[in-house]
Amino acid sequence: MPDQPHTHQILNPATEEVVATVPATGAAEVDTAVVRAAGAQRRWAAAAPADRARLLRRFAAVVDGHVEELARLEVKEAGHTLGNARWEAGNVRDLLDYAAGGVERLTGRQIPVAGGLDITLLEPLGVVGVIAPWNFPMPIAAWGTAPALAAGNAVLLKPAETTPLTALRLAELALEAGLPEHLFQVLPGAGDITGQALVEHPGVAKIVFTGSTRVGKEIMARGARLLKRVTLELGGKSPNIVFADADIERAAAEAPMAFLDNAGQDCCARTRVLVQRTAYDRFLELLTPAVRSVVVGDPSDEKTQMGPLISRVQLERVRGYVPDDRAAVRGSAPGGPGFWFPPTVLTGVAADDPAVTEEIFGPVAVVLPFDDEEDAIRLANDTAYGLSGSLWTRDIGRALRVSRAVAAGNLSVNSHSSVRYSTPFGGYKQSGVGRELGPDALTAFTETKNIFISTEA
Ligand code: NAD
Q: Is 362 near ligand 1, meaning CB less than 6 Å away?
C-alpha cells in the first residue's frame, strides 16, 4: 500500500486558501473503528425499533438546527453556492426523517406453506462502509448513512480527501443528538488507503460507493474476493432531448442549469443536449444568452448561480476537453485565485469525440442535432452510461415511448429533476449497480432470512 500523508489540507476552491488540516485514518485505525462499530451495532440492533426511530428523528432535528452552519462549511470546503449548500444540509435532515419513518415499517413476511409457518426477517447487515465523493459531500454521505442506520447497521463513512469537514461535523451532531458512540464514525483519508481498507475488511459487510466508474469497478473487483455487497453510483453522460414540438423557450431557458448546477460536477448533469434538427437554430439562438446570463462568482453571495470547480486537478481535467478555440458559447468566470472555468457549450463535435463520450464533470455541454424519434433514442443510448436524462415534448405518447426506450435509471419529462429522497435513484449500464433512496432504501441494508416452523404434532 502507498504511504498515506498524516494530514490532508482542505482548500477553499474559490480562493485557494487553506480552510483546515484534517488527520488521515490509517489501516490500523480502520481496524479499530470496525471493531468498535461492530459492538455498537449489536446494541443498536437490539434496541426497540421505536427508540431507534426516535434517535434518528432527534439527529434530524439537530441537523435542522445547524443547517446554516453546515451550509457555510460546504461553501468553504466545496465551493458550492449558498443556496445549493442550504438545500444539501436540509436534504440530510429530510433523509434522516424519512429513514426514521422506515424503522418500524421494516416488516418481513409470512408466506403460506404446507406443514408449518414460514416467516421472513429483514436483518441488518452489520457494519456498512460508505465511501463518498466530493461533488455532493453531505447528501451522498446521508443517502447511504441514514437508511443503513435505520435498518439497524453501524456506519463508517469515508469522505473524499477534499471535502471531509461537513461529514466530521455530522458525526459530532449525531453524538449531540444521542446516537450511541461508535455507531456512526467518520474516517477521513485517502481512497487507496482508508477507502481500500474498508473495502478489504472482512468486518465490513457492504460498501456504498459514489464516485468515478473507474474506482467503482475496482471496488467491485476487490470486494468480490469477500463477496462483499456493493451499491455503486457512478458517472453519467446524460441526454437532454428536445423535440421540435416542445415549449422551446422553456427548454432553452432551463437547459443551462441542467449542466451548470454545481459547476457541472453532478453525475446527473444533462451534458449532451440533443435537439431536433427543425428546432436546432432557434434553440441555440435562445440557449446562447441563457448560458451567458448565468451568474458565476463568489459562492457565498446569495445571487451566485455557479461557483468554482473543486480543485486544480479537476480544473486541468476539464480544460483538457475544451481547446480554447472550440467553444460555440462561453459564459464568464472570475480571474485570479480559485479553480474557475466558464460555462461552455460546444457544437459541431464528432460523435466519438471525448467531449461527447466521456464524463467531463465540469460546466461543459455539447449540442447535437437529431432527425426523428428513432434517431433521438439511438443518440441518447449511444453511451456507456445510463444514469439520468430529460426529454421535452408536448406529445404524451412520445414522452412515454422515449422514456421507456432510453436505458437510464432516472428520467424526467419537461423538467430536469432526478433526485428526491422519496424516489429510487441509480444507474443502468456503467452508471452503477443497485438503487438508493425511495421506499426500498432500508431493504438494501438488510439480509433476508427465511424461517420455517413446523406445526406437526
Ligand atoms: P473517485 O472515484 O476517485 O473518488 C470518490 C471516492 O472514492 C473518494 O472518497 C475517494 O477517496 C474514494 N476512492 C478512491 N480510490 C479508492 C479506492 N481504490 N478504494 C476505495 N475508495 C477509493 O473520484 P475523483 O477522483 O474524486 O473524481 C474523478 C472523476 O470521477 C470525476 O471527474 C468524475 O468524472 C467522477 N465522479 C463522479 C461522481 C458521481 O457522483 N458519479 C462523483 C465524483 C467523481
A: no
